[in-house]
């Protein structure tokens, strides 16, 4: 997915077996089957009684978005406008009130939702994007191996597993979570950097040009021409692999990586972002209330 300032299939219960040791001592509010094809986390939901909808779950969007065809159908009230900043430009988007989501029986009512008008002329593969508001209201667990999403109440959530607890921070409220991670090179150099966690990005890692140039990451890398596309257009990249990415004690060998030829997918001072291609190797728990992300090996 792309950076943004206001960046903004069937529900089947999946039960644990009798041999599973519980990682959490609290019971989830809901277990929802998800679809992870096309390297996206797609969540079924109904909005204002409209069933059969599918939304991408994206930590990189601060505002929940709906397809521009939906506000009129759902009788949403237009209340303003925002500017969405992407990897190659920006776009104005109207905002609306009155959207009530039902996600596996759990109610989620964002204060406002946006609608990118440019989506109107494209093939409709999703009905919108669920952004950071859901992560701020609930503890969100994404179990890629079982293809399920679990939602917990933050006040009753207690983690009792053996996963890697990674501190997260935010530059400002509503923005994408940031972690410290390390690129381990073939010559033994460990390069630390600050990375956004962007679950809507289909790559493993996307790196900004300044971080690449400073650390000479393309000198010994075999890459091919590529590109990333999102709000505002596209950006030229070189596609290849990092030798290894390390998050806490967790190591991911040769993650798919997009090296930006110019510019960056993230704000200044950050190395890049970590996306679906890395997260899918773990069970991931986002606990914004305690400013932590937990990674468990499946």
Description of the structure:
- With 298 residues, the protein is mostly beta strands.
- It has two domains: 127 residues, Cathepsin D, subunit A, domain 1; 131 residues, Cathepsin D, subunit A, domain 1 (Beta Barrel).
- It has a nine-stranded mixed β-sheet.
- It is globular and about 60 Å long.
- The two termini are 25 Å apart.
Roughly what percent helix? under 10%
**Whole-number mean pLDDT:** 88
Distance between the ends: 25 Å
Query: Which class of the largest domain in CATH terms?
Result: Mainly Beta
Give the biggest beta sheet: 9 strands, mixed
Radius of gyration using CA atoms only: 19 Å
Quickly give the structural class. mainly beta
Compute the number of helices.
4
Spatial ordering of strands, largest sheet: 17-18-21-16-22-15-14-19-20
Q: How many domain units?
A: 2
List low-confidence stretches: 2-21
Question: What's the total number of strands?
Answer: 24
Along the chain, the helix and strand elements come as EEEEHEEEEEEHEEEEEEHEEEEEEHEE
CATH superfamily of the largest domain: Acid Proteases
**CATH fold annotation of the largest domain:** Cathepsin D, subunit A, domain 1
Q: What's the architecture of the largest domain in CATH terms?
A: Beta Barrel
